[in-house]
Amino acid sequence: MANKITLNLITCRTIQQGVGMEAGKTSKKYFDACTIIHMHPEDFKKLGAWKNTNVKVTSSVGSVIVKAVETREDLVPGLAHIPMGPWANRIVPAYTFSTGEPCFKGFPVDVEVATNERIMGAIEVVQDACGLIRK
Amino acid sequence: MSEYIIKNGHVFDPVQGIKGDKKDIAVKDGKIVEKVSSSAKVIDAKDKTVMAGALEVHAHVAGPKVNAGRWYRPEDKHFDSHKKPGITRIEGGKSIPTVFKTGYEYARMGFTFAMEAAMPPLYARHVHEEIHDTPIIDEAALPVLGNNWFIMEYLKNNEVENTAAYISWLMRQTKGYGVKVVNPGGTEAWAWGLNCLTIHDPVPYFDITPAEIMTGLMTANEYLGLPHSMHVHQNDLGNPGNYKTTIETLQLAEGVKPKNTFGREQVMHSTHLQFHSYKGTNWGDFESAAKEVMDYVNKQKNITIDTGNVTLDETTTMTADGPFEHHLHGLNHLKWFNVDVELETAAGVVPYIYDPNISVCAKQWCIGLEIALMAKDPMRCFITTDHPNAGPFTRYPRVYSWLMSKKVRDERLNTFKNADKVIGATYLANIDREITLYELAQMTRAGPAKCLGLMKDYGGLKAGMNADIAIYDINPDKFPSDGPAIEKAFGNAAYLFKDGRICVEGGKVVDMGQKKTFWVDAKVPENKQVMHDVREKFLRYYSVNENNYPVPESYAPHQHIITVDATKA
Amino acid sequence: MPKDVTDVICPFCGTLCDDVVVTVSDDNKTILSVKNACAIGAEKFNHQRLPGRVKRPRMRQPDGTYKEVSYDEAIDWTAKMLVKSRKTLMYGWASTSCQAMSIGHEIAEKVGGIVDNCATVCHGSSLIAIEDVGVPSCTLGEVKNRADRVIFWGCNPAHAHPRHMSRYSIFPRGFFTVKGHKGRKIYCVDCRYTDTAKCADTFIQVQQGFDYELLDAFRTAARGEALPDTVGGVPKEKIYEVVEELKGGRFGIIFFGMGLTHTMGRNHNIDEAICLTRDMNDFTKFVIMAMRGHWNVTGSGQVLGWQYGFPYAVDLSRRDQARHQTGETTSVDLLNRNEVEACFYIATDPGAHFPINAMISSSKKPTVTIDPHINCTTEISDVHIPVAMVGVEVGGCAYRMDNVPIETRKVVEPPEGMLTDEEVLTKINNRVDELLAKGGA
Known about the structure:
By secondary structure, chain A is α/β, with parallel strands linked by helices. Chain A contains five helices and six strands.
């Protein structure tokens, strides 16, 4: 189970993410909609993971724990998607190529199984990175 | 409010026929009065020229296409964008200045009123938001109607009363001032990528011609008795050989009588005539048709015109003539902005560089000046740059210098790269006329005020009129002989009074005044047919609901409503 | 008696639907039901009545907890922060009214702020492209009445603009489009088989990040020139076929979204899409439109446009001149470079939508967030000022994705004593004036 696969990640809006956002950033709807990574069935096989397993996604700027799911909006193998939100943004590279736009779509990530790791809450995931959580 | 007395100035007022005589002007409570008390503040205007505040009859200064021009041309800010002395906000842009700069610059030049020349009804709220934010000057906006589905459907069946009732409804919804027509029929055709280049080309599907649209709108305008006449940007703008269409369009006014209570005598205002006075068959043999066009204008009393003077700058063209902008983009390949507006109109924007080294541009420059210099009646010919199409309005002082001094304009004409070619294709070199200060007051004050139906309050210095007064550092007895001196004087008013308040002093903005938005409320008999059609169109074809269409009055600060009653027409 | 408020404007996305019907309680305090809105819009209206809403400003204490403070206290703190900071990032504006923006700009001009809106991480690329090559576009009603070729490129309205397809682009019957959906050919270009793609007649699956190449291939095909066998994973036969179909239409439109603005190439992708549109006008009528996200992000661009001449990322820190340079005055870059001294966020949530490194930089600076609800940004701010929800509890002007302005409506009363954006900004503006008159904070 110690597989690690490299995927091309995009972050996009979904209607569930939109509904969750309007229900409140601290709502369960928002949490459920955004703490997932959509992956292709073949990539699940390569990773050696079941659907709905927590995974650790790591990019050049950091890591985040989300749940790997299959999507109804088909991907091609090698392409993965995390809905936009604070979890996705933990790993989005901030470099903008002087356009003002960070690299929200199309950056490489490593995905590995992290069954026992906990997914942070929306506010926690930001405060944690900013060093605002007192331990 | 405080009282003022302006002493010792040389007054030029066509309303009272004053031609530079020294006369004191008294101001009280925002109006010009016969006399004021001894406590009135004295303004010494010795060796200065005193005129009423100027009126802009046609400029694109507020609204969606103007703003598109602003934000898609960041480079326009490189030319001239810095805060100037006075109590002003940041000013930006040259050919398409920001709203703050627009208000300040008009005021610095002695203007107190500007007409936004093209308001797409669906975007009326945007136009009014910008007008709201434009300081000092009073403004109004003309909704564009020449390609409106309602209008075309009514006029196809000669339903003048329905047309008038719809215009009345629309002006109330949009807080509009009058009837604007841009490339009638051609802009609707543009929604399919086509155009109407003569006034007899049928409009696709609607089965009506531009001539019929214009005749119908002129009739409806007089039926309503609006303060302003139909205001038309003709078909086939900017093409060699278009002068025949121009004269044919002007002929549509023959026999139509003005009917209004505002003292307006014209039934058609034909705008930026420079762009419509071209002879030749292509850009190679292109030449001036100013003489042909102005000969007609001079003898036909019920039309007024404005010039559309090319200023030889880098500028930003913008018009509801969508097909023209596409055509222009094909010529200069600069960035093209376009928006087609459902059921109503369209607009295009393309930057343009009027390069004095290109003979076409130089000829256009000549034609604009010829039109003004060939005008026999300065009360019917107004100076514009069709801002920003032929050049920015901030160049008016330079245009005045060309018109008022043969020496200044000949210096320019004779130093064009292709001077011989330009002179050979135009009339300008043989014109000696110099516009006088009195004629300038007619062309920029009394004339436009009368044309817009505002002569009761604007354009003159008679007691009872608005205390909108421009004082320039010009001694008529020693009129400056060099261009820059003329420009400086007209560009930096010594004083500008707006409604009796000093807003500009020594070229500096010192007061934001209290700008007014004008609109016309035309009352017509209840018309169930039109209201039914409006409901139907909103239900089926518009992308907004009828109840979200009107512009609320909160958008028009200090609104000034002109009411006309056509219920007994 | 509960009553219906009709012609309500939905303050969620750039589609700005204006036919929503909201049933409110007799006392005008509670929303009971919402009709005509999409799932997201309905949720936004319904959020108004959810329990637990913060009703007074909160200030972070040294121990990291938040304490309720008065509006006056919060406004004073904010004004002092703004006056003291030489360069403040004033970001957001996309979910408030144009009237509020105007007041914000006045403050920014006085204190030397940088005003930026959500376009900076959304359609900023499109705005750069428009600055480069212009844009031929139209209003959404034109699409409804005329369009017979509709392309969705890198956008997914089924998820992001849920009523777009039924109101304007796929299904409605218009004046010249009496057959509705049947009379239109719908194309979808995306790297995923999205729910929008499922509504299309033709789906073109482009390899992620190869939109520029594919757009270029479309232009090449339109000119009848040779293509390699595949471009961006799409066979050339398909490209030629689609281009011929597009030429055969009477009125075509390209809607595009984040699939173009966020991927490699950014503004160059849009540039190419606009040039394709322009080229197509040699054959038929063709237009293009950005699928703007926030309901009033377009409005922010408009107000900045008429006041300063730039659509976003407007640097007023020189106080006598407005500057705009993407990569330099854009929010994420400013934060990446640690270049601002304070942050002022209004009507947005960069905490959730900016890359984390930008927000780490932001969290080290004095920060005020003005937003109706608790969000990821409020919880890393020093002060959170809650306000009435614009478009629900207070009206104000907004601009639709096609730049059409629509006045949003007030549907219910805000909670007792809750101020609006306009009121809070006016108070801050007045306080800033007082402080500046005294010579600073």
